[in-house]
């Protein structure tokens, strides 16, 4: 069991903690609480809570988890304790488990053009594909160890990768500080570009680091005070507005930094999100970060989680192809209803089951597709869920004949990625398979609010469509363009092409986006509302978008731990009120040592906050 929290992890925890502390002080005016029979619950906050709020008297008996991604599966695992087990049903609308952990295998072609099974490593991860071994991601790696998941080295950058901008090419190994001082991509005004010359001759990543690193240094030195200062003075800034005002960097310079370091539109997110992401991955620049991928693809993670549940949680049932369409809250019970096999035509049926509690583990836009009219989500919760935005992201995987052309005589690219200002933007080569994979990601457009991924997503109309054929042509042309100095021609790529799979997370109805993306001040406003339960404490919300670690499996795991802990706190309060107190929170901590985003007192006060707001808005409705 961990005893010391790394400073980078502590900062992420403090972020949520500070936001909730300010909210509780301002909104609820709690007195100093008196603890009940254990230290898990902080007791009744004030006289109003004792006299006016509805009494919590519905213990946890049967739980529905809506969403079979990593957050939902992990919540189910946490609910299986050594001394206790609940009845749990997991509802997944898709015909597969895993959500945004999705691996796609591509077939080859025979001499006459008929499909033949691909090789062992002829796959790509459509969703999460790489995992940095950092303290912030520690719980992810603990899960890998628990499930005996085999990891492989992931090469984030290879010397043979290309950087191609403004029709100029450099191998990654050739880009040095000396090269940057020459304006290598000719974007300076003296070369006909838009970037002032004094900026064009500097490494764009260094220009960004110059503005962000002082925050990181101060956070590491004094986490709590610096984080409070950032929230108060800088939370209203986007990364773009901060660079413009405080650099000050001219607009052309900011656009150039954004193009080279992240992606078009990424600087429109909140400055604090950029700071914390840099902290998570560059907290100690002296260390060479190690990245890992899963042998067999990231889909192995949810499959192993399912195996664990089948072996250890006999009361947990998983229902795929079950789309929840409504949850009704009445008389302290929750009725979950929906459609079985919703993706099939003419063969659908309906289901309806009753539960004491529901955990929603689906993205915010998907949550809005479910009828929750009777579930007493208060105005602030409804507004937060409506406004939470997910970043778009697309991937296009392509398979070629063996041996793969990127492992030829003129080049030997092992992993890493080439980047360009062409439509493909980022080309990702396989790290797995020791050169035996013939599948690469021809385009990975991510971390973008609009341009890159939405342009490509507009062309994804399914295999065989004219638009997707055009997309294939554009991707092959971009691959040839980026690698033309390696004598890779378009004609060769057309001849060796065997298959393609394109996926757009935004236009997928079961995700409606890739991961949480927050603008200035948004997370401060939303986090306090989406981490509160609804339906008098009987509905909980989890997922990476509802965490402090957006876009990573770690965020899904941490949010699931927070949601389950709150549910068990509610259970303890309900059983305490009935005179038969069950403290399962301490057992959760003992059995799992979860990484809770905030302390248990704050999580409990979130339950009380919801009771207060629901009482104000809905009165005595049940």
From TrEMBL:
InterPro entries from the UniProt entry: Amino_oxidase, FAD/NAD-bd_sf, Flavin_monoamine_oxidase
GO biological process, one term: amino acid catabolic process
Domain spans labelled Amine oxidase: 70-568
Chain spans, region Disordered: 31-51
Gene3D superfamilies for this protein: 1.10.10.1620, 3.90.660.10, FAD/NAD(P)-binding domain, Guanine Nucleotide Dissociation Inhibitor, domain 1
Pfam families according to UniProt: Amino_oxidase
GO molecular function: L-amino-acid oxidase activity
Listed name of the protein: Amine oxidase domain-containing protein
Organism: Thanatephorus cucumeris (strain AG1-IB / isolate 7/3/14)
Organism lineage: Eukaryota, Fungi, Dikarya, Basidiomycota, Agaricomycotina
